Structure formats: C-alpha cells, structure tokens
Amino acid sequence: MCSTCVDRIFTSGPTSCPVPHCGKTLRKKGFHKAFFGDLKVEREVDIRKRVGEVFNRRQDEFETLLDWNNYLEEVESLVFDLVEGTQKEKAEAEQKLRAYRTMNLRDIEENRKAGLEEADQERRREDEEKEAAKRRRLETLREEQEAKLDVEKSRRDVLERMANTDEDPNIISQQAQKVILKKSSARRKMADTATESNGSARDPNLTIRGLKKKIAPVLEKPYDPFGGIDLAPSRYALQDHYDNEWLAGAKNDARHMAGGYSLKEYYARTMFEAFSGLGVFIEEEVVNRGPPVTSPAVATAAAAEASGGRIKLGHKMELDDVF
C-alpha cells in the first residue's frame, strides 16, 4: 500500500484490512517503508525476522552438530513454506509457528534476552575499542610532539656547548644523539606498560563467556603410498657422482639425456643390485624353511621326468618344472 492510503485508512486507529476476504485487523505502526525494490524480497525478509524471533535456539543448546544442522534445515523449510508454499502449506506453517511459540515461550524469552545482552556487550566492546583507538592516536600525537621538543632542545644544547666549550663537535653530536635515543626508548616503554595495564583492567563483563576454544586445524600431510615405510638404503649412502671411465662419456652425451634419463637412476639401481643379497644367509633360510611339501601327483611326475619317461594318470599330463 502507498503511504497516502495508510495515513488515510489507519490514522484514526486499528482497522480491518481493505483487501477483500482478509479480515485481519491492522495498525499503522505495523507498516514500514520498503527497503528493497522487489516487494517479494521485502516480504521474505519480514517473514525471516518473524520466524527468527520464535526459532532463536543457539548452537550450544544442541548435543551434536548434526542436531544443530537439522534444526536449521527445519527452520529453512518453515520459511520456504511461508514464502513459496501454497495456501494449505502456508496455513500449516503458521499453525506450526504459533504452536511452537506457545510450547516454548519461556525458552524463546530467555534466548531473546541473551541475544540482547550479547548485542549490548558487542556494542560496548566496539565503543571501548573506538575509545582505546582514540586514546592511542592522542598518545601517539603527544609522543611525536614531545619528541620534536626534545630534538629542538637537544639541538640548542649542542649549539651552546659548541659555542662555549672547546670539545670536539662530533663527540657532542654523538652524545646528544644518544640522549635522544634513550628518551625515545623510555617513552616507548612507558607507552607499552600503559597499554598492558589498560588491557588488564578491562571490564570482564565485556567479554563473551562460554565460547568454545578455537583449535587450529591439523595440517594434512602429503599422501604417502608406502604408508610411512622408510625406503632409504641402510647399508650404503647413494652419492650424486661416481668416477667411472665407462660413464665418463655418457654424462655429457645429449643422446643419453634427451629422453629425460638420469644417471642417478642408474647409480641407484646398480647400488641396490650390488647390496641386495648381503642380508640373506642361505643356511638360516634353509633351516627355518623346513622340508618341502609336495603332492603325490607332482612327486610321481618328477620321478618320471628323472627316469626319462612319462607316466599317464588317466590322461597325458604336461607339467612345468616347479623348480
């Protein structure tokens, strides 16, 4: 409705809605100017505010994150029914909203008060931060002014000493510079001490209590296809270069390196093959292995091969040498 119609119809007091078959009693204070150009968006914002005043649960009231997400999904479904649903769905959503308000009136009021307190604390914290920033700016300006005055005073003292004494001008200038540095350091320490004292004397009521501690996420390690197994050689150290007459010409030959081949791969393979059998002892392997277990058919075939002939067991058998 336009503002002229609102003033004309509702200035004298509450009146029923002029829309046919509506019948709701409206008041002038219930109207407000649209913030968005699209009235559909404006209506959705109003519905979300109205639903948010009733469904104002907090995440810390739920046992698990899944319960909290389910609650948020339920609220969004209710808002969608009120905005985009049919007449039946809108009526059911309004009934559900009224029933929830009636059943949880006490919790709704407590959460509303808690929200107002948090907003007030946040506003007070912002005001305190602005005031602290203002004090820091004024303190910085004061320190800069004092530093300029000290420089001017030191310059006058240096000129007077140079005019009235026979001391070396360079020594006088160095001494004056040291005095200026000491004063600036002292002012800086005093400012840091004042900042710490102001931070420690902050009103504890301005802090938000009950917040969960933030835990830094664990950095994900790169994928290891070997599951943490150390594949570094333990019996030798692989070097980047070996003196070898046969490899002397291949190092600088473009035909060997054109395909991306590296001599380090050759070094690694050669050293691995050279040391691969040093940790194997045949006697211990034979003792721990025990006697071989063979089936009768394999034993018969092996005996036939040893005698130079073949034995038929129902049909001709072609057996490979298992050894």
UniProtKB/TrEMBL annotation:
Every MAT1 centre domain range: 26-198
Subcellular location(s) per record: Nucleus
The organism of origin for this protein: Venustampulla echinocandica
Superkingdom assignment: Eukaryota
Gene Ontology cellular-component terms listed: transcription factor TFIIH holo complex
Chief site of localization: nucleus
Keyword annotations of the record: Nucleus
Leader peptide range in chain numbering: none
InterPro entries assigned: MAT1/Tfb3, MAT1_centre, Znf_RING, Znf_RING/FYVE/PHD
Keyword Nucleus: yes
Domain RING-type: start-end pairs: 1-22
UniProt name for this protein: RNA polymerase II transcription factor B subunit 3
Annotated spans, Disordered: 111-139
Entry's Gene Ontology molecular function annotations: cyclin-dependent protein serine/threonine kinase activator activity
Any one of the GO BP annotations: nucleotide-excision repair
Extent of Basic and acidic residues compositional bias: 111-127
